[in-house]
Amino acid sequence: MVKEVSADSLQSYINSLVSFGTRNTLSTQSSNTKGIGAARNWVLKKFNEFAKNSGGRLSAMIDTTTIAADGRRVDVPVLLGNVIATLKGTDPSDKRIFIISGHLDSRRTDVMDRTGDAPGANDDGSGTAAAIECARIMSTHSFPATIIFVAVSGEEQGLLGSTFMADKAKKEGWDIAGVFNNDIIGSNNSNETNIINNTKARVFSEGIATDATEKDIARIKSLGLENDSKSRELARYIKEIGERYVDHLEVVMVYRRDRFLRGGDHLPYLKNGFTAVRITEMNENFNHQHQDVRKENGIEYGDLIKFMDFEYLRKNTALNLCNLANLAKAPSVPEAVKVEVKNLSNNTLLSWNPPKTGNAKGYYILMRETTSPVWQKKIFTTKNEMTLPYSKDNYFFAVQSVNESGNESLMVMPQP
């Protein structure tokens, strides 16, 4: 599947997205060729094309809600629409959902300008194109778990589309096991520093969970798990699997929920208690982000296609695909993962129960030194407990399920 990801396909999607002039959330919804309404209808059309080759597993829709004027970034009531394609899992008992998201809307310097051109090639045509391309390829395969591909609206007006979707998921009890928010993943260079590099991508993840209670935080502190939220484990997973399958791409984990004092569409999921990360290019170029298309003092501004690197976008799309596929094919996580603490000991006894869904061939016990950002050792076992000759004072441990074809679940940290 990684080999099927096409830079040409990604470029064709972005050419189409840019052709709508502006995709501002407040732009026209009555035109067939211009504005956010035409853009979301085009994305729906692409998803429906892919559905024809999915054996009935893929279905698509525009999920809408009316957003009232808020006196800030919405000055009139607006019909908001998220374009959603759902690849239904093949195991009826497996309720897990994995989401890949990009935002469809674009903006100019003035976020309220709904008529001027806002190409949005990279922000966030790139994330939307990645979701479309993953849907194209993955819809021809089957997975036990469900995968949702979504192009949300309203990001630039205040994360409106993702908030609508995350709140709905919480209310309806969706079992979201991981959200991949892709926002600005297709350009290889930065302004000011003039760094050019298409071999690295950033994954942002929170440390202490957004919805953590005081009791949760006290437990986290007592166990030294400030760096081991579920979202951070997902980031570690993305790094391991991404670098396994995608050549010439280093995944750089950034220990922040998002860029400095900024936000994105994964935040509403975190607020609702779901596991979510943000994937972003390594070096942002602010001359080509939130800018009117123009030239000033010899500098060309605007989020234009000419500033994209489609080979880089191909790699970042493949990064998403291989992780989504590995997770959706894997068993669910091991249950009731425990560490024995009855006695002082320089050994560590771990135990766990089988996953709720999927067939586990066995389990990996992962371990790392307390100062290591990534898991350093993986020990395979077919049993449901193991005593390790390593001190829990000096190492962190986790357990993940693995099936016959080698697909690993997310990691679970043991509780005393």
UniProtKB/TrEMBL annotation:
One of its GO terms (molecular function) is metalloexopeptidase activity. GO terms for cellular component: extracellular region. Keywords: Hydrolase, Metalloprotease, Protease, Secreted. It comes from Hanamia caeni. It is found in: Secreted. The lineage of its organism: Bacteria, Pseudomonadati, Bacteroidota, Chitinophagia, Chitinophagales. PANTHER family: METALLOPEPTIDASE M28 FAMILY MEMBER, PEPTIDASE M28 DOMAIN-CONTAINING PROTEIN. GO terms for biological process: proteolysis. This is M20/M25/M40 family metallo-hydrolase. Residues 333-416 form the Fibronectin type-III domain. PROSITE patterns: FN3. InterPro entries: FN3_dom, FN3_sf, Ig-like_fold, M28_fam, Peptidase_M28. It comes from the Bacteria. Transmembrane segments: none annotated. Pfam families: Peptidase_M28.
